[in-house]
Specification:
Shape: globular
Structural class: alpha+beta
Helix content: 10-25%
Number of helices: 10
Distance between the termini: 60 Å
Length: about 725
């Protein structure tokens, strides 16, 4: 046998052994070997990979991929959010990896034994959240070396979990901490808070509740304490919760729902809102694969457990007093018929049955849709009963609170929605609100057409309010004074000829808002726009003294101001006015299926990004959660009648726009670059979560229609 024959034989043997090795190596081995291979490239020491824990694993039945989420540990204590995910195909190939392991971890930790105990940690959190602990008993429901669960008592909506972790303080320091999760009885935030296990100080504080305050695109909260909100009428509260169990009912698993959706080409397609189509009676709309016993089952036996809007996937109810407690749910009777009246001219308190029924339908629909695409029991979806498909995560159906909030003068209880996502097994909570007439979109660009549409604004609490009678067809003009910062207009304006009879545009800074507007009025302006220096709008507060202007004024975000300024040479005409003075004073977000889909989308992305038990991963500056949620809103309401270039605004109905309006984002969605010119280059300029999310979703929407052109479209989105 010559040397070449020997080499060939050796090569064949090696290839055969490698093939046998690949066949016997499981997906977990592939994932672990991948981490070992990446150790040097990622700058990790061997100790950094020792004793890593699998925090989550599931097999995606649709994509046929094994999803591994590894949590870095030090001496068996997990490092908070140090999650690296490796996704392995059935063929044994790692196709997607996200690395968040800490380099040289051992040199960065402080201690490994806590000084304060779990009780002291909870006490520290309650002091921080101003939760009184009078008569609260620390009753442990379960305990091990690094974790304890306390009974919720009367301070939390859910039991209180306390885990020992390491918390990042800076790049060089990780402190031992107690991770406390608590859902306070009074409040909208479901908190995950790290408490220093040595001295009890608060190290890190994150809310699992995503607040979609649509009136502020960046999601930041601003101090409006000086702003006097308009008076609001009190809503009628229904009593008698009707939470009756019906274990002995006939084995009816189907229901009938009068909701804003229709059957198109044999498939159920929700309307984005009442602006897009009428209500229709849907019979047996549930998907058998994800709901073998229907939407009203919880025990996995024939016959519904509830005839109200409650079942395996969600429990929908009114929460008018904002205490996160079910007050009332409509009852469909033994036939599960949820057909209740709705009048587009009526106020929300007159159609509560219809509202709760609609949000119940839409929440279940999104459950069924996402289930079909892989968000099932194993991956951490929301169900009371996993029907044996996964051993953990039972009991976490969505709590859906319709018309949430009794204090109607609180800005957080209007033009809003939110979704709280604890880890697998904990109940998510969706809160839907009513929308007032103003909606925060008071500036309407009339021309040029390339930038036409409604723009988000904040108003002033001095001078006249924006009224239904608009300032029509007035051009905007830049105002200047003779100072070293002329665009701030803190002094007498020296270009009155440019702004006479027009709307003055002035930059924020240097002096009181009130003084700026008064200076514009003295120069002949009919209104003023204050341009913020960030991507947000804030209420224009008054000066402690000085002349009060008699012209109206608003604040506009920096990106929108920059856009308008870039077109001034073409002559930008705008109007300032309230939305049309027709219809009820309030619109009910429970009929806005697009917003419901958006909120539920937060639950999906929070459970999937870092694994079902790590729902706090989407907190970094450029996270895509808002974009993913807008994408959910779009795809769930798209039919074969739609096309990529058309304008798709988010929340046009609640903003009292027509279906061709811009909606509540910085741009409507469209593949037409003249309608939505956003590209990846726009990421740095849009730092607010909703503005940034619009950029991400714009990319997804372009890709969606590119794939539609390639593969075609089927109205049967689920099957």
């Amino acid at each position: 046998m010559n040397i070449f024959t020997k080499l060939l034989s050796l090569l064949l043997i090696l290839c055969f052994n490698a093939s046998i090795w690949a066949q016997t190596q499981g997906p977990k081995d592939v994932a672990l070997r991948y981490l070992e291979d990446k150790q040097i490239e990622w700058g990790l020491e061997e100790a950094d990979l020792n004793n890593i824990a699998i925090s989550d694993y599931y097999f995606g039945r649709m994509e046929k991929v094994h999803h591994f989420y590894f949590n870095q540990t030090f001496q068996n204590i997990k490092v908070h959010n140090a999650i690296t995910s490796v996704h392995v195909t059935d063929q044994g190939k790692a196709i997607c990896v996200s690395n968040n392991f800490v380099q040289k971890l051992a040199s960065k930790v402080n201690v490994n034994t806590p000084v304060i105990d779990q009780v002291a940690a909870v006490q520290s959190v309650c002091r921080n959240l101003e939760i009184p602990l009078n008569n609260f008993q620390f009753k442990a429901l379960g305990r091990n070396a690094n974790k304890v669960t306390y009974d919720k008592g009367e301070i939390s909506n859910a039991d209180i979990n306390v885990n020992l972790v390491y918390q990042k303080v800076n790049k060089q320091e990780y402190k031992l901490a107690w991770d406390v999760s608590i859902d306070p009885i009074k409040g909208k935030d479901y908190w995950s808070i790290r408490v220093d296990a040595v001295d009890g100080a608060i190290l890190d504080k994150k809310s699992w509740t995503v607040h979609c305050k649509f009136d502020h695109k960046d999601g930041h909260k601003h101090d409006h304490s000086q702003c006097s909100a308009p008076s609001r009428k009190t809503r009628t509260t229904k009593v008698n919760a009707k939470v009756k169990e019906t274990n002995n009912q006939p084995a009816a698993v189907s229901g009938t729902y009068n909701v804003f959706a229709d059957v198109i080409n044999g498939s159920i397609i929700p309307y984005e809102s009442p602006g897009y189509g009428p209500r229709n009676l849907l019979v047996t709309p549930h998907e058998p694969l994800s709901n073998p016993f229907g939407w009203h089952d919880t025990n996995g036996q024939p016959g519904p457990e509830y005839t109200i809007t409650r079942g395996n996937n969600c429990y929908a109810y009114l929460d008018l007093v904002d205490d996160n407690t079910p007050e009332y749910s409509p009852d469909g009777g033994n036939t599960l018929t949820f057909d209740f009246p709705w009048d587009p001219e009526s106020e929300p308190d007159l159609h509560q049955d219809a509202a709760v029924s609609n949000v119940f339908f839409m929440t279940n629909y999104i459950h069924d849709l996402s289930y079909a695409y892989g968000f099932d029991e194993a991956s951490g979806n929301f169900q009371a009963n996993n029907y044996g498909n996964h051993n953990t995560g039972n009991g976490d159906y969505v709590l859906v609170e319709a018309q949430d909030g009794a204090d109607l003068n609180d800005e957080d209880h209007e033009n809003n929605a939110n979704f709280a996502t604890p880890g697998d097994g904990g109940n998510p909570r969706m809160q839907m609100y009513v929308w007032t007439r103003s909606g925060g979109r008071l500036l309407n660009v009339l021309s040029p057409t390339s930038i036409a549409g409604l723009y988000q604004t904040a108003t002033a609490n001095f001078g006249p309010m924006i009224a239904n009678t608009p300032i029509i067809n007035k051009e905007i003009a830049l105002a200047f004074d003779d100072s070293t910062e002329p665009t701030l207009c803190c002094n007498e304006i020296n270009n009155p000829g440019d702004i006479q009879g027009k709307i003055a545009m002035i930059d924020r800074g240097g002096c009181w808002f009130q003084a700026k507007v008064y200076n514009a009025e003295q120069a002949g302006a009919v209104a003023a726009i204050i341009c913020n220096y960030e991507d947000a709008e804030e209420t224009l507060g008054p000066a402690p003294q000085g002349e009060i202007p008699t012209i109206p004024s608003v604040m506009l975000s920096k990106p929108n101001c920059d856009l308008l300024k870039s077109f001034i040479s073409e002559g930008v005409s705008i109007s300032l006015e309230l939305p049309p003075n027709s219809g009820p004073d309030e619109y009910d977000g429970d009929f806005a299926n697009g917003i419901i889909a958006h909120e539920y989308g937060h639950g999906i992305s929070n459970r999937l990004t870092g694994g079902a038990n790590n729902t706090g991963c989407l907190s970094n500056a450029e996270q895509m959660g808002e974009g993913w949620s807008d994408y959910m809103s779009l795809i769930t309401t798209t039919t074969s009648a739609n096309f990529g270039a058309e304008k798709r605004g988010i929340g046009t109905w609640v903003s009292r726009e027509n279906t061709n309006g811009n909606g509540i984002r910085i741009k409507p969605y469209s593949t037409d670059m003249t309608v939505n010119p956003l590209t990846f280059n726009d990421v740095p300029a849009n730092t607010g979560v909703h503005a940034l999310g619009t950029v991400w979703c714009t990319m997804l929407w372009d890709l969606y229609w590119a794939m539609t052109e390639l593969h075609g479209f089927d109205d049967d989105i689920i099957n």
